[in-house]
Each structure stands twice: as C-alpha cells, then as structure tokens.
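From the pipeline queue, job 12 of 40. The input is one protein chain; the requested action is below.

Action: predict structure.
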Amino acid sequence: MLPLTITIMAIYGFIGYIGKPYDMPVAVLSALMLGLSVDFAIHFIQRLRDIHRKSSSFKDSFHEIFEGAGRAISRNVLVIAVGFVPMLFSTLVPYITVGAFFLAIMVVSGLVTMLLLPALARTFHKVLLPDAPKKKDDSTATVAN
C-alpha cells in the first residue's frame, strides 16, 4: 500500500502545486495509477516471500529478489514509461497531460517499489520474513540403549 500511497501523494500533490485543474485526463490517471502501482508492489512482495520460503535466509532472499523480480519490475517501468512518451508530442493537450503524468506515475511508483519496499523489508525482516528453524542433525544425536 505504501508505493500506491506515496505515488498518489507525490503526483496529485504536484498537480495541486502547479495549479492544474482536476479534469478528465487527470481523473483517468487515478484508475491507471491504482492498477500499476499496486501491481509492482505485489510482484515484489510475493516474489520475496517465495524466494525466502525456498532459501530460509533473508540475506540470500534479498540478493536473489533483485536478480529476478527487481530486474523485471525495472524493465516493466521503463517499457511502460517509454511507451507513453510519444503522447508528449501530441497536439492535443489532454494527450500531453496523460503522457506526462503517466510517465511520472511509472517513475515514482517504480522508484518507491524498488527503494522503499526493500528498505522496509530489510528493517523489519525478522517480523515479516522470519528465518525457518534449523533442522536437527541426526548424525549428532545419540541413541539411548
């Protein structure tokens, strides 16, 4: 929820700061922002949980999450953001608005997901992703006769 909340506050705070009226293109961005911002965060968190479940080590999980999901999220942000760049060159102002703000939404959402979520996971990893208990080694156990 944090990437979505921070993205909404940043983008709509900026819209309010520059004095842009809340018109139809800006309203449409709300729905798009909800879907994509949440998608990045869910992808990151779910992959971190899956990796941690297999490795049972936070350090290993943390490293591996950036190799796979981190790279995928970064590429997804880049591809979607670049896909909206042509709208910046439109002659219609609503298209320019959507292109500019959607580009900003992708960048802010991606940065928050890739910077804030890992920082929170690192800070609270003992609560969020506890290490699995160590298995007893049968070779050291003594058998009572």
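Job complete. Residues 39 and 102 are 15 Å apart (CA to CA).
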